[in-house]
């Protein structure tokens, strides 16, 4: 029953308030694994052809031969296997099922700004310890990565666009623009750095992303900001690596391998909606993969692996509905739903109708009587639920096209309790100042936040200029972890625990100097500027309603990602904007110009010296002037000697 | 005249200055420039590589011929044991085969073993007596009257490295030992062709090195099918609802354990749902089944390959074995060969890629079937096909034995010792050939392009390749097959590491015109005055000499 006391235990562990974050204690809140023995794969007819074409297998000459089996069949094979004598019999008794389970879920939330937020979650649970290498629902490529690199937890996200917390509120999973990767390794890994290097290369191959650009200059080991989200008591941050690539462009080539990891691919279930031409025609797109160990049951003696694939997308109402305030699955994704993924034990669509209790804001069709309440991000929300495993959901037309029609156009503005901004101040190309502004909009509660700044080495931070002010007064951080940079080796890492007073704005400023790079270190478009990754703000924000800490309760997937330890607060991670900083950029023809100029100078100096040394000088009598010459000619004619 | 003398002195001094500056440029400047701009190139054993490139290979096999009681007369017996060596120089290649035949009479225990009722039992008990080393063979010559073999069989090839050979009638064989041996030799040769390497196989292994005569194209097709040798292999398979752990343990693992000296194998499996064949099977109303034509099999793999993804954890080549369960709309599905006949195994394989087997579960797709249905896949059947495909893909060739030969059926590991030996012979030769090619082309490349930096680690890899190659060749010559394979594997991995080292690329593309664009602004203004003054000095010297000549005249 240890797992039940999930309440106030871990709150006030005093070590600088560090453990206010997700305490990686032994108890752990996760969904109990449902005993779903359904989903025996009976392949359904996919009506579409495979979208991806890859290169043909490397066969120089295509020699296709029918295999003839003659003497090669082991003759004592049949006797070795007792259970195969009954060929192809329908076995209704429970066979030793591989214990894995797949769930899919789509949450749609009409945002106060009038945009639509759609969040897909696909979760595969597998009761294994990766000693076997036979995969069913879990993708083999990721399983191999976990077992080969001894990964304990892996979180990777690719994001295009910036999540506007002020207008949209909190997302279910936040992610910074570009690519983000953080990995906890098992404590059996001896050389974490080389494993990390290899892992990033492999992942960049799996996801078709430029993760191979992750090296020591953009990797850090945060001491407190990124605690493991799964179970496990190793919190030694030597085994943690965190890196972001703010410049990474996310596009179709990243989506296709991501979709391939799903058991049903994009052939059935909710993944049918993931058409790239629509998904990338949006204001915000973020796809992520989270792998972590979770408790298998309440006692938490054994662990399973959880693979969560999430995809968050925000559709701009005005671009996809041509100005009409009307929205449907077909308009957004250009597809409707016809079935759930047959392998999924649960397949649901949630529509957030909290702001619309009596239907005065918008109208939802087809209507559903199924309602569900969930506490998510410190708020109790009401959802209309569509269960895709029920045939009745699809109605008589065998297809589900959800439609929301707005009645009133005013949306109430929303004030998220915590949000943050960042910008660069200063002029000229020598020094500058980074401002990080954090807003606590809670009317009467103050709470601590952990701020992580990851600044590349070519911005040389003056750490003595660090000031933290809130409400005009100096605010002393209770914990500072600073790791200075080394040129071309590692970046700056600054972690601070700052208490945000109620209803306040806290500003963190820091001056920096721009370094002059070597001419080969500039990017191909240096005048575009250099990106500095988002700063990360992790916090336990006081909740308005009591959070669910009861893990035995069946929760929807979107509310069960961050484990919740206490009722009074909820975990939030906020990313600021990435910065774009101009560095002093030389004229790139300069090296050649310099070579030419120096060579000319050397040549001129050398030439005159050479002339001085080798020429012989002699005094020449000055030639007589013109008058004298004429006079001489006259004197010659007269027969008088010349002058 | 004083002015003239000083003028002369001045001119003399100028000449000296010009000469000394030219000397400085040549003695100090040029070497300095040379040293500072040269690329580091470590020493490579080029001559040894060239020597290896000739590929003088000699393969030696130890053959022990044991004469059982009743095959030799007492006076013949006096002359044994004796050793004969037979060398064969193959025409138009640098290959030499050496067979070392050692004749001896059977020991008492061997005689007992040979008196067992059946050949299989005799084979087993002979194996118990002594285990012959890898690559060698033992041929037991048994009398004509022996009951071990059936009437029309002359040779029995066992599961290990032994063969039983029935001798002809004494009358035909002749009286003296020489006559006996002369009678035995061609027959032993025949046995060797089956159990040890054959010339076609070795030349196939050397296919990219040795020019082939048009006659043996068929064997090339065989070798194409076989995977190129590499130090590690991964395999994976995908299936429906199946006991893959048990099946791998029972059927595949014994074979892989046996093949462990060749390569490290690892097995993974994944079930893929909604997998697609790239082609639409045609409905054959006469059979009430869907058929896939053998021509269209080539298009099957690509869509599946897209779902398979690459092997994330290693860069070793992958053999794919796919079990495809067709969906209800295309079931049952059969493969048709060129003669429009159904292929019995319903499976096909693609060289160096893997195999696909189609597994029909048609009985469950009835109209009243209640889904989901549990289907147990008959793993014995599936694994039988996959094992056969694996043998083919690895290059274990089951060539049809000549008439009169009886080959023992496969034992549980799925591969006989002598088959493994055959594989090892051709693999070692192939490894040696590949490593030699790699290292030779690397040496040529480095020789051609002067810009490439050769670091010490590359030089070290190259010399370790050369050393391993030399050792492998020597071991082949000595007949130690196991070591030869070991060294050849080392050679191949070292040569690949050297060839694909990224440091070779650093300065590869530094164009010459850019170099000149940088040098000319410095060199032109510096060298022109020196050259001019040198020319002037030269012409003056010549003029003075001419004047002197004129004066003499």
Can you walk me through this structure?
The complex is a heterodimer of chains A (643) and B (553). Chain A has a domain of 49 residues. Chain A is built from ten helices and 28 strands. Chain A starts with 64 loop residues before the first strand and ends in a 5-residue tail after the last helix. Chain A is α+β, with helices and mostly antiparallel strands. Chain A is elongated and about 140 Å long. An eleven-stranded mixed β-sheet of chain A has the order 7-8-6-5-9-10-3-2-12-15-14. A five-stranded antiparallel β-sheet of chain A has the order 17-18-24-20-21, with no helix packed on it. A five-stranded antiparallel β-sheet of chain A has the order 22-23-19-26-27, with no helix packed on it. In chain A, a hairpin with a 5-residue loop joins strand 17 and strand 18. Chain B folds into four domains: 82 residues; 98 residues, no CATH class; 144 residues, no CATH class; 165 residues, no CATH class. Chain B is an alpha/beta fold and 553 residues long. Chain B has a seven-stranded mixed β-sheet with strand order 2-3-1-4-6-5-15, sandwiched between helices. Chain B has a five-stranded mixed β-sheet with strand order 8-7-11-14-13, with helices on one face. Chain B is built from 16 helices and 15 strands. Strand 1 of chain A pairs antiparallel with strand 13 of chain B. Chain A: One of its GO terms (cellular component) is GPI-anchor transamidase complex. Chain A: Keywords: Signal. Chain A: One of its GO terms (biological process) is attachment of GPI anchor to protein. Chain B: InterPro entries: PtdIno-glycan_biosynth_class_S. Chain B: It is found in: Endoplasmic reticulum membrane. Chain B: One of its GO terms (biological process) is GPI anchor biosynthetic process.
């Amino acid at each position: 029953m240890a797992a039940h006391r999930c309440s106030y235990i871990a709150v006030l562990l005093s070590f600088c308030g560090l453990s206010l974050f997700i305490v990686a204690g032994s108890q752990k809140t996760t969904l109990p694994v449902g005993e779903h023995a359904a989903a025996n794969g009976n392949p359904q007819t996919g009506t579409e052809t495979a979208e991806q074409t890859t290169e043909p297998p490397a066969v120089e000459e295509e020699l296709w031969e029918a295999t003839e089996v003659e003497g090669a069949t082991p003759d004592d094979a049949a006797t070795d296997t007792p259970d195969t004598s009954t060929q192809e019999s329908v076995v209704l008794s429970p066979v030793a099922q591989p214990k894995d389970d797949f769930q899919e879920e789509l949450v749609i939330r009409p945002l106060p700004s009038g945009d639509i937020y759609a969040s897909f979650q696909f979760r595969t649970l597998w009761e294994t310890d990766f000693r076997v290498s036979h995969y069913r629902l879990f993708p083999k490529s990721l399983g191999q990565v976990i077992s080969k690199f001894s990964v304990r937890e892996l979180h990777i996200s690719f994001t295009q666009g910036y999540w506007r917390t002020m207008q949209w509120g909190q997302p279910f999973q936040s992610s910074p623009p570009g690519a983000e990767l953080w990995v906890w390794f098992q404590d059996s890994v001896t050389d974490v750095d080389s494993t990390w290097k290899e892992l990033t290369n492999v992942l960049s191959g799996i996801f078709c992303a430029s993760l191979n650009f992750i090296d020591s200059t953009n990797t850090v080991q945060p001491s407190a900001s990124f605690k493991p989200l799964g179970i496990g008591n190793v919190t030694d941050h030597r085994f943690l690596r965190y890196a972001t690539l703010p410049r990474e462009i996310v596009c179709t080539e990243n989506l296709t391998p991501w979709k391939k990891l799903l058991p049903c691919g994009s052939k059935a279930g909710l993944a049918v909606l993931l058409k790239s031409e629509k998904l990338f025609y949006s204001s915000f797109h973020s796809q992520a993969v989270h792998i972590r160990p979770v408790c298998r049951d309440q006692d938490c003696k054994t662990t399973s692996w959880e693979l969560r694939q999430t995809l968050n997308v925000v559709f701009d109402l005005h671009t996809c509905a041509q100005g009409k305030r009307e929205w449907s699955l077909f308009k957004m994704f250009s597809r409707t739903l016809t079935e759930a993924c047959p392998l999924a034990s649960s397949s649901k669509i949630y529509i957030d109708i909290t702001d619309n209790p009596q239907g005065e804001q918008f109208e939802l069709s087809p209507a559903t009587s199924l309602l569900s309440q969930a506490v998510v991000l410190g708020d109790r929300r009401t959802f209309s639920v569509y269960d895709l495993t029920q045939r009745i959901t699809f109605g008589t037309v065998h297809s589900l096209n959800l439609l929301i029609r707005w009645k009133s156009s005013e949306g109430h503005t929303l004030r998220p309790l915590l949000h943050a901004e960042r910008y660069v101040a200063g002029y000229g190309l020598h020094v500058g100042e980074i401002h990080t502004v954090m807003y606590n909009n809670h009317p009467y509660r103050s709470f601590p936040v952990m701020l992580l700044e990851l600044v590349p080495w070519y911005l040389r931070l003056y750490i003595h200029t660090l000031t933290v002010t809130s409400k005009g007064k100096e605010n002393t951080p209770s914990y500072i972890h600073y790791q200075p940079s080394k040129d071309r080796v590692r970046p700056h890492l600054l972690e601070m625990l700052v208490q945000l007073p109620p209803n306040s704005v806290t500003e963190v400023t820091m001056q920096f100097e721009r370094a002059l790079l070597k001419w080969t270190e500039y990017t191909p478009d240096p005048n575009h500027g250099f990106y500095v990754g988002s700063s990360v703000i992790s916090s336990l924000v006081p909740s308005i309603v009591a959070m669910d800490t009861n893990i035995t309760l069946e929760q929807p997937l979107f509310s069960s990602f961050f484990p919740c330890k206490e009722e009074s607060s909820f975990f939030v991670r906020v990313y600021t904007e990435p910065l774009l900083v101009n560095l002093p950029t030389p004229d790139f023809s300069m090296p050649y110009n310099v070579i030419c100029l120096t060579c000319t100078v050397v040549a001129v100096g050398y030439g005159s010296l050479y002339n001085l040394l080798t020429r012989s000088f002699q005094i020449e009598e000055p030639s007589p002037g013109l008058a004298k010459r004429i006079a001489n000619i006259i004197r010659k004619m007269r027969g008088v000697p010349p002058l | 005249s004083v002015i003239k003398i000083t003028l002369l002195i001045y001119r003399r001094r100028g000449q000296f200055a010009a000469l000394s500056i030219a000397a400085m440029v040549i003695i100090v400047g040029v070497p300095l420039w040379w040293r500072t701009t040269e690329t580091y190139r470590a020493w490579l054993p080029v001559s040894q590589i060239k020597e290896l490139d000739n590929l003088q290979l000699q393969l030696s096999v130890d053959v022990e011929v044991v004469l059982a009681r009743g095959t030799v007369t007492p006076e013949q017996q006096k002359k044994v044991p004796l050793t004969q060596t037979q060398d064969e120089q193959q025409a138009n290649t640098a290959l030499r085969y050496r067979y070392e035949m050692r004749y001896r009479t059977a020991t008492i225990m061997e005689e007992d073993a040979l008196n067992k009722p059946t050949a299989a039992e005799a084979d087993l008990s002979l194996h118990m007596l002594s285990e012959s080393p890898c690559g060698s063979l033992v041929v037991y010559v048994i009398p004509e009257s022996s009951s071990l073999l059936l009437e029309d069989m002359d040779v029995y090839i066992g599961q290990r490295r032994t063969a039983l050979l029935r001798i002809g009638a004494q009358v035909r064989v002749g009286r003296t030992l020489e006559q006996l041996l002369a009678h035995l030799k061609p027959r032993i040769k025949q046995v060797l062709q089956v159990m040890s390497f054959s010339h076609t196989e070795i030349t196939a292994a050397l296919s990219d090195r040795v020019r082939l005569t048009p006659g043996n194209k068929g064997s090339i097709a065989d070798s194409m099918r076989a995977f190129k040798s590499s130090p590690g292999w991964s395999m994976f398979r995908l299936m429906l609802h199946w006991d893959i752990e048990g099946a791998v343990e029972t059927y595949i693992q014994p074979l892989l354990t046996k093949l462990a000296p060749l390569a490290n194998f690892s097995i993974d499996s994944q079930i893929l749902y909604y997998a697609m064949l790239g082609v639409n099977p045609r409905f054959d109303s006469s059979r009430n089944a869907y058929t896939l034509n053998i021509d269209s099999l080539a298009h099957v793999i690509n869509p599946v390959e897209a779902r398979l993804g690459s092997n994330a954890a290693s860069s070793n080549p992958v053999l794919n074995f796919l079990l495809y369960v067709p969906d209800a709309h295309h079931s049952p599905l059969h493969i048709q060969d060129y003669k429009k006949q159904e292929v019995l195994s319903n499976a096909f394989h693609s060289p160096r890629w893997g195999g696909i087997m189609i597994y029909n579960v048609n009985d469950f797709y009835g109209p009243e079937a209640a889904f989901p249905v549990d289907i147990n896949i008959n793993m014995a059947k599936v694994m039988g096909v996959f094992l056969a495909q694996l043998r083919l893909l690895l290059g274990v060739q089951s060539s049809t034995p000549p008439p009169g030969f009886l080959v023992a059926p496969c034992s549980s590991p799925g591969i006989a010792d002598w088959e493994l030996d055959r594989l090892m012979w051709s693999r070692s030769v192939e490894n040696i050939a590949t490593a030699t090619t790699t290292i030779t082309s690397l040496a040529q490349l480095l020789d051609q392009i002067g810009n490439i930096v050769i670091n010490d680690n590359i030089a070290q890899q190259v010399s370790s390749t050369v050393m391993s190659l030399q050792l492998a060749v020597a071991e082949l010559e000595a007949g130690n097959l196991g070591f030869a394979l070991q060294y050849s594997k080392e050679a191949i991995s070292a040569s690949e590491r050297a060839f694909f080292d990224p440091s070779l690329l650093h300065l590869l593309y530094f164009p010459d015109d850019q170099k000149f664009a940088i040098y000319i602004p410095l060199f032109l203004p510096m060298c022109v005055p020196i050259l001019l003054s040198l020319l002037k000095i030269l012409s003056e010297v010549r003029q003075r000499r001419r004047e002197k000549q004129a004066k003499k005249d």
